[in-house]
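Protein 1 of 2
SEQ + STRUCT:
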Amino acid sequence: MTHQRTPTPTTSPFDHRMTAFGADDDFLATALPFLAEGLAATDEPPPVAIVAPDKLSLLHDALGSDAANVGLIPHTDWYTGSAANAVAQGAGYLAAHAGPGGRVHLLMEPVWNGRAGRSPRETAEWIRYEALANLLFAPFATTALCAYDTRTAGPAIVGAARRAHPDTGAYEDPARIAAELDAVPLPPPPADAEPLARPDAEVVRQRARARGLAVADAELFAESVTAAAAAVGSVTATLLWGEAPSCVCELRSARRVDDPLAGFVPPPTGELEPAQGLWFARQVCAYVDVRDEDAGTTVRLQYA
């Protein structure tokens, strides 16, 4: 499965902004004008703030009577899983609630003191999401302001996020950022990794159960492995290791994927085609790492 690399759009209706702040007053100084801009926009539904619960209280008090016209969503209800889950959440929200062409103002604060900030690996996945959002949401006339609280997001996170937002002066090609993240080698499989004859759903399910996954989790993990295998094709080796909940399966394919958006583009319908198997895998697994190499591609799936 070889794809053309998606070029960075030179013009896009998607307005992807960023603000960094270290105090509540600074947050309000940026958030309130942004929400007012959304309230004044024509052909748009009410703006939405997706931020930490304490900031929702600040906004509610500061907005006064306008609070009834602004959607207030705790960010822990929005950012509930992986970066790919956030893509699905955003795409689903635009489809269900946005105005013509995806018009809506969204004030968005990642959960940096939770899942997304708990390790360098998590941070890298969320920076990938911020970068690829410029491509994934390029067709939509959505205005998004990503809010970074420096009290929970450190200087390294904020600096990396600036590279993913066109309004910062530090913006870089999303494909370049993804390539940098993918240039970090994956840790080698452990010596006791179990080779499987093929990525067969029943075999993966049985071996995952033996490693402690519950029945439902083993089923989902097996489905994600077989979906990813169908998407990349030409699987030459399959390895399984780890104990529940962090079961890992690695697929090695003779083909290259060669697409930074592989598995991130929402399918047009609820019925997945085989080529969209990486989307399913990314929705199910905590991590799906794709590494192109001279001899093909390695896809590593970690359930949790």
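Protein 2 of 2
SEQ + STRUCT:
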Amino acid sequence: MHALKADTYREFGRFSGWLVLKGVVLHPAFRVVVTLRCCQAADHYAVPLRWLLLTLARLLHRLASQLAGIELPWRTSVAPGLALTHGRGIVVNAGARIGSNVTLFHGVTLGQRDHIDDDGRRFTTYPVIEDEVWIGPHAIVVGGVTIGRGSRIAGGAYVYESIPPYSMVLGNPGNIVKSNCTPDVDNRFVA
């Protein structure tokens, strides 16, 4: 449960079992993160117990997600330290990968992009969000792009090309407006 400890630290600036319970009861977006971690933990149990625990965890995750208005599939690769700020309206494709100490605001979309080559074959790609990335409200990141470590994606930006580390992006289409920016990470969790 290292990841849950990191997520709790990002939310509250410290960790305790009491804070996890408080977050589950009072913070809908944090509840989604906790149930995501429960699903992922249950998936690693031995076979006889795995099915029961995973079924229960998935039901709780689905309920928490619907109540919070967040689509974050439990199979999504999410490193420790995820912070969902306000949360409502976040949509993440299960194929996306999210690094550690990432912050997602309300309305963020991390989606797939399909390409059809000259032979008619379809290729689907998903975004990779590296560590310490901050993605503002209603930003959209699609396709097989990589958002480099420590980058900031401004609210409302539409990103469909890879972004180098420590860049600031804004606009539609997303343009790099600053390089070598400082990562914006509240309560950074260091393992």
